[in-house]
Amino acid sequence: MRIRILGASGGIGAGAHTTALLVDDDVLIDAGTGVAELPLAALAGIDHVFLTHAHLDHIACLPMLADSVGARRGQPIVVHADEQTLAVLRAHIFNNAVWPDFTTIPSRAQPFLRLEPLAPEASLAIAGRRFTSIAVTHSVPAVGYLAEGRDGALGFSGDTTSTERFWQVVNACERLRTVIVETSFLDEEEALSRLAGHLCPRLLATELAKLERPAEICITHLMPGEEDAIMAEIRSHLPGRAIRALRAGMELDV
Q1: Cα–Cα distance measured from residue 167 to residue 171, given in angstroms and rounded to the nearest whole number
Q2: Which domain holds residue 241?
Q3: Are 189 and 215 in contact (CB under 8 A)?
Q4: For residue 208, what are the contacts with CB-CB under 8 A and spacing of at least 6?
Q5: Count of the separate structural domains present in the chain
Q6: Band of the pLDDT at 247, cuts 50, 70, 90?
Q7: Is the peptide bond before 76 cis (omega within 30 degrees of 0)?
Q8: Residue 171 confidence (pLDDT) above 90
Q9: pLDDT, tens digit, for every residue of 199-208?
Q10: CA pair distance 117, 119, nearest whole angstrom
């Protein structure tokens, strides 16, 4: 699988874009502001979107994606998420007040968008790849994903603070090659990290101690303006360990 990082920031500004990963050319994991950087033809080629949770920085471009390319496609874009996340989308986004309900436009029989529940621990196979939802610990119902291709696998934590099941699932994956895990705040903000359901460098070090397999470690969701300081603290907790921060435009081969 080829993973293109469209956005990996905890916010916007100065070229930062929020979370969106393009898997090959047809699957998105989250739909943050980075999706807007794709050309129209690439947007029209997205068939599936896997959401980690309903926070705006992870769904911001989903409504406009449906609006921009729905009429160019012969089939709906399918959005996969846990039922609680889909309920938020129905009630607060695709409600004909904040945004048109593209699950019924242009018709219920042939909509631009289809919402399909994917419960934690459930998997979906798409064109030789498998995507498994994994419950994580955030301030709202949230999941991470294990994305498996023919030759390797990627674990993506989404937004989480200290959690357990995510690490159990990735440890059980023999083809694991890369783990993307969030770290949003500095150590001095640990109380805020816990309250908001995120990690700081000290908590990240504890989480990575749970990883039993050799894998490339990539950091996402760094807060704008604090990226270098957060990465410096991460390296102070994990000296000698190869860890890199993700940026929009990077590509990973998994």
Answers
A1: 6
A2: 2-246
A3: no
A4: 181, 217, 238, 241
A5: 1
A6: very high
A7: no
A8: yes
A9: 999 999 999 9
A10: 6
